[in-house]
Design brief:
Elements (H helix, E strand, L loop, with lengths): L23 H14 L3 E2 L5 H16 L5 H12 L6 H9 L3 E5 L5 E5 L11 E10 L4 E10 L2 E8 L6 H14 L13 E5 L4 E5 L31 H8 L2 H9 L2 E3 L5 E3 L2 H19 L9 E6 L5 H13 L6 E6 L2 H14 L10 H9 L5 E5 H10 L10 E5 L9 H9 L3 E7 L19 H5 L2 E5 L1 H6 L6 E5 L20 H4 L2 H18 L5 E5 L7 E5 L2 E6 L2 H15 L8 E3 L27 H18 L7 H16 L5 E4 L12 E7 L4 H8 L13 E5 L4 H11 L5 H4 L4 H6 L1 E2 L5 E2 L2 H11 L10 H21 L13 H20 L8 H4 L5 H5 L5 H10 L7 H12 L8 H10 L6 H24 L3 H14 L7 H6 L11 H19 L3
Parallel strand pairs: 1-4, 6-7, 11-15, 11-16, 12-13, 12-14, 14-15, 17-24, 20-22, 20-23, 21-22, 23-24
Antiparallel strand pairs: 2-3, 4-5, 5-6, 7-8, 9-10, 18-19, 25-26
Helix pairs in contact: 1-6, 8-9, 11-12, 12-13, 17-18, 18-19, 21-22, 25-26, 26-27, 27-31, 33-36
Length: 997
């Protein structure tokens, strides 16, 4: 179905070529030759004057128009190089405002195209290399840059083989910080970056590093591989160039398959998303050409695994469909009204007002009759009501495209027959992460339940969970099976399902033991000691600091949910770990789903619950109201608002454990959620859907979705992965057993992977802590690599129950190595010029997130002090204390404070209270000193610092900082900017001294 001029190539056949030991220069030269063969003109531009001259020439050629010098000067300085425009504004010019108006010298106005998005081959492609850009403080030389009509729109950063492409990623980050804005700022027009070390290549957008607070973040996880239609990765830079930089492909990507969201994030679609979108568009064109609307084969389905960006794919597809003049409406159909709300929210992120939602059938009817509503988002329930109540409606004869979200749900029922028997000229497409095949239909005796192919037609494209994990677009799963039944009742944990055994699973002692296990292991499984920043889901989009991740407990029935909630309430009264637990369930026809398939709960049907279940839920919601000062109950509207509020609080990690039966196990996405506790039967698509709640990418600490099964689901897990992945993909989808990570293992390709024991012993043997720590650059480089491996594998092992008491390093050794690791990082930052062109700068990647996961906090330090209160001057204690402080990136800035506290509090009774008193007094003393020394405005300074601690960074630019500055007379000898720099430095020191304590 893909045309010959498709954006993504049909098939990539890797040529098993012999690699030469190319230098960066060799790779660059060979890449330019490949680009010249792809019809790029190679320019030897080295200065901005030449770059601007070429830009003018190409814009004139594209528009068949010659500027006068005055016209060009105004056009260039006021529009193209406006000093008030940054990356976002320039991205808007390329993506949205690519037609600009210029006022001519004769007073007339003329439209000027910057890119021809309709006739791609009218655009000119050129390549430059080793372009030099300078600012007052920095000088940068860029590897390879692609020009489109003279604009630098794609930049390629190259490293030699053996060097991590993360270094290229970091290099581009430095360019963005230091020099892209230099001169006329033309390099801020770059839309796409490509990074490669010849044998591994990835791409990403110009805003990948930016979060909503406009801070650069290490978002390497959001870089993408380029593939063929069958999801085979094209890693070699020269093969990548022949496909990705093909004129049709790169211009399609820039002009058609980028989305600048309403939040100013540029999203570049991944190859599987592009293939899916083009497959649907091609199929619609084919249907129209053959006048084949409303037939059995008038559509198809897209199998893209959960978490792979289906909403973006559907949005872009819907937008492209609106460009087809023979299609009157595109209707995106979701399954519940909360998903209607979520989808509109997502669509609004992509483009404000692009889609019309509706909260009643009457509004849906108006939208179907309106010429303006091109894209409509509605629920299956509203669409069903519309069809029933509007026989022979005019829209039944319109050319309409239906796109069904998660098409394995209730669309397989009577509604599908109603829709296809009333609408006469439809195209029907479905998206699903878990298709229904003949062997996983919920109930084969139900006439209305059919396979995905029977309902929608042929499969147009697939991107399985194994593909997504290999591409690092979602995380693999770590599955633990915790035996909860004694050996004499082993049949209860076996691989068959039996209604009668539910009573054993609901045994009060068993539920008590499982609850105890969850409370005891919660911190370990969810990385409670780790803290990070996240944008909240609420409308104010504030930055919150979160500790670790959160979880869902999925249980077999409402009765089980009630028992677990009561047990958690009881145990948490005396538990040290004060977890926030919430409960939700609603009526389901198939409440006791003992066959392992997830049946739909209807979140609108609380009224159909039996009296005891409804009353229990009412009391649980009262607990929630008391916790969050809300006012929900089980009445219809308030329960739905409870559902939405609970969704947001889970996403914001305000809930630690959410107890559910079936709700939240399909269609709910939260990157903060990393653990699923399971005490229910799951199999097939139900199992994959439930597991997939945990595997959204967030940061380098969250390396897998953590699944803890209190029933034996091993066979069901393996069978489901085989069904919804490719052959032989268990090694990609599931993490290894504990012993593999602890002692090492061999991959299927014969590659040996070091285990924890080997890596830890390597540290002890090669970098003895008893020796003088005086390393050469080469030894420093080696230590950084080995300790990085140690941090990575320990991060995985920490969640295994078997890891307890199996550390190789002592606590003191671990802390001392970590301190040395951080010392080297700080040394490199302070003296980076010293290391240029030496071994240590070639391949340096510090695991910053993993460093932040070190379980050292002020409570630990105070515990050490209290336990050694009579030996505070002892050299061994001082070394132990110093190692502990130095191993924490947060505490090492507070070393002076801690030592001062020890001196002033040599006799400690309750050291935490005394610490807080000491800190509060010292914090106030230091703040007044800064205010008085620099004459700052007191109220404004306190507000500024309060906001800084809340947002966790010092804002160095903007009016907030100017408001705290004292007035400086124009006759003063003091330079305003010199003083401002000093004040920023003082405030930064104050901030780092006192934040997180």
């Amino acid at each position: 179905m893909i045309k010959k001029n498709a954006t993504v190539i049909e098939e990539y056949v890797f040529q098993n070529q012999k690699y030469n030991n190319y230098s960066e220069k060799d790779i660059e030269e060979k890449l330019i030759e490949v680009l010249k063969n792809e019809s790029y003109e190679h320019l030897k531009i080295k200065s901005e004057i030449e770059l601007i001259k070429n830009l003018r020439n190409k814009i004139e050629k594209l528009n068949n128009f010659l500027f006068t010098d005055n016209e060009w000067k105004i056009f260039f300085t006021e529009i193209l190089a406006n000093p008030n425009n940054g990356i976002i504004e320039k991205t808007k010019i390329i993506q949205e405002d690519y037609k600009q108006v210029v006022k001519l010298d004769n007073g007339n106005f003329k439209n000027i195209n910057l890119i021809d998005k309709k006739n791609l081959y009218n655009n000119c492609l050129q390549v430059i290399n080793q372009y030099s850009n300078k600012t007052e403080n920095h000088s940068s030389r860029y590897d390879v840059t692609l020009l489109v009509n003279g604009f630098p729109l794609v930049h390629i950063e190259l490293k030699k083989r053996g060097v991590s492409i993360k270094e290229a990623f970091n290099q581009i980050g430095r360019y963005q910080n230091e020099s892209f804005f230099a001169g006329a700022g033309l390099f801020e027009y770059i839309q796409i970056f490509v990074i490669s070390n010849e044998i591994r290549t990835k791409y990403y957008s110009n805003t990948t590093r930016k979060d909503k607070s406009h801070n650069y973040s290490k978002s390497f996880a959001f870089t993408s591989y380029w593939t063929d239609k069958n999801n085979n990765i094209i890693n070699n830079i020269f093969d990548f160039a022949k496909s990705f930089f093909n004129k049709n492909t790169i211009l399609n990507i820039i002009t058609k398959y980028c989305v600048l969201t309403s939040e100013n994030m540029l999203l570049v679609m991944r190859p599987y998303q592009i293939v899916a979108s083009e497959s649907i568009i091609n199929k619609i064109n084919f249907i129209n050409h053959n006048n084949n609307f409303g037939k059995k084969n008038s559509g198809g389905y897209i199998w893209h695994t959960t978490g792979s960006g289906k909403t973006l794919t559907s949005f872009k597809t819907a937008k492209l469909i609106t460009e087809l003049d023979f299609i009157e409406k595109t209707i995106f159909v979701v399954d519940r009204k909360d998903l209607d709300y979520q989808t509109i929210k997502e669509y609004d992120k992509f483009e404000k007002g692009a889609a019309n939602s509706n909260n009643s059938t009457a509004i849906l009817k108006k939208q179907l009759e309106s010429f303006n509503s091109k894209i409509i988002v509605t629920t299956i329930q509203k669409l069903s009501n519309f069809v029933k109540n509007n026989k022979n409606h005019v829209s039944f004869n319109k050319n309409i495209v239906f796109i069904f979200d998660e098409c394995h749900r209730s669309q397989f029922g009577k509604m599908h027959l109603e829709l296809t028997s009333n609408f006469k000229k439809y195209c029907l497409f479905g998206f699903t992460g878990t298709p229904i095949f003949a062997n996983n239909i919920n109930n084969k005796n139900d006439y209305y339940l059919k396979t995905t192919e029977e309902v929608f037609g042929e499969k147009l494209h697939s991107y399985t969970i194994a593909d997504a994990i290999k591409d690092q677009n979602v995380l693999p799963f770590k599955v633990d099976f915790v035996n909860t039944i004694k050996q004499k009742n082993e049949a209860l944990n076996s691989n068959f399902y039996n209604v009668d055994k539910e009573s054993a699973f609901l045994n009060s002692k068993r539920i008590k033991n499982i609850t105890e296990y969850i409370i005891k292991n919660f911190d370990k499984k969810t990385y409670k000691s780790y803290n990070y920043k996240k944008i909240t889901e609420s409308n104010d989009s504030k930055i919150k600091v979160l500790n670790g991740f959160n979880s869902i407990l999925a249980v077999s029935s409402i009765n089980a949910a009630k028992k677990y909630y009561s047990e958690f309430k009881n145990q948490l009264k005396t538990a040290k770990n004060k977890l926030k637990v919430a409960l939700i369930y609603s009526y389901s026809v198939n409440e006791e789903e003992n066959d392992g398939i997830l049946y739909e709960e209807n979140n609108e049907s609380v009224s159909e619950l039996d009296y005891n279940s409804k009353q229990f839920l009412e009391n649980a919601i009262k607990d929630y109201n008391n916790l969050f000062n809300t006012n929900f109950d089980t009445s219809s509207d308030k329960f739905n608002n409870y559902y939405k509020d609970l969704s947001i609080r889970v996403k914001n990690k305000e809930i630690d454990i959410l107890i559910v039966v079936n709700m939240f196990l399909t269609g709910f996405d939260s990157p903060t959620l990393n653990t699923l506790w399971i005490d229910k039967n799951l199999k097939s698509h139900g199992l994959i859907q439930a597991f997939s709640r945990t595997n959204r990418i967030l940061n380098s600490i969250k390396q897998f979705g953590n699944i803890v099964c209190f029933r034996n689901l091993e066979k069901e897990t393996n069978d489901a992965i085989k069904m919804f992945g490719n052959d032989n993909n268990l090694e990609y989808v599931l993490l290894k057993k504990f012993d593999d990570y602890y002692n090492g293992f061999t991959k299927s390709n014969g590659e040996r992977v070091q285990g924890f024991v080997e890596i830890a012993n390597q540290l002890l043997e090669n970098f003895s802590l008893s020796n003088e720590w005086n390393l050469s650059n080469k030894e420093k480089n080696s230590f950084i690599k080995i300790f990085g491996k140690y941090l990575k594998i320990k991060n995985i092992l920490k969640t295994y129950d078997e890891f307890e008491n199996k550390e190789i390093l002592t606590v003191e050794q671990d802390q001392e190595y970590c301190g040395k690791y951080i010392d080297l990082r700080e040394e490199l930052i302070l003296n980076k010029n010293q290391f240029e062109n030496k071994e240590i700068s070639d391949n340096i990647t510090f695991e910053i997130e993993l460093l932040k996961n070190i379980e050292i906090n002020i409570e630990y330090i105070l515990f050490l002090i209290k336990n050694n209160i009579n030996d505070l001057d002892n050299l061994n204690f001082k070394k132990q204390l110093n190692n502990a402080i130095s191993s924490s990136m947060n505490l090492r800035t507070k070393k002076e404070l801690i030592n001062l506290f020890i001196i002033e509090n040599s006799k400690i009774n309750n050291n935490f209270i005394e610490w807080k008193t000491f800190i509060n007094n010292k914090k106030e003393f230091d703040l007044k000193k800064i205010i008085n020394t620099y004459g700052l405005k007191e109220d404004e300074t306190r507000t500024f610092l309060k906001n800084s601690f809340e947002y966790r960074y010092i804002k160095k630019i903007g009016t907030d900082l100017d408001k705290i500055m004292p007035r400086i007379s124009r006759f003063s000898n003091e330079n305003y900017y010199v003083k401002k720099t000093k004040i920023i430095k003082e405030l930064e020191n104050y901030f780092y001294n006192y934040f997180d304590i």
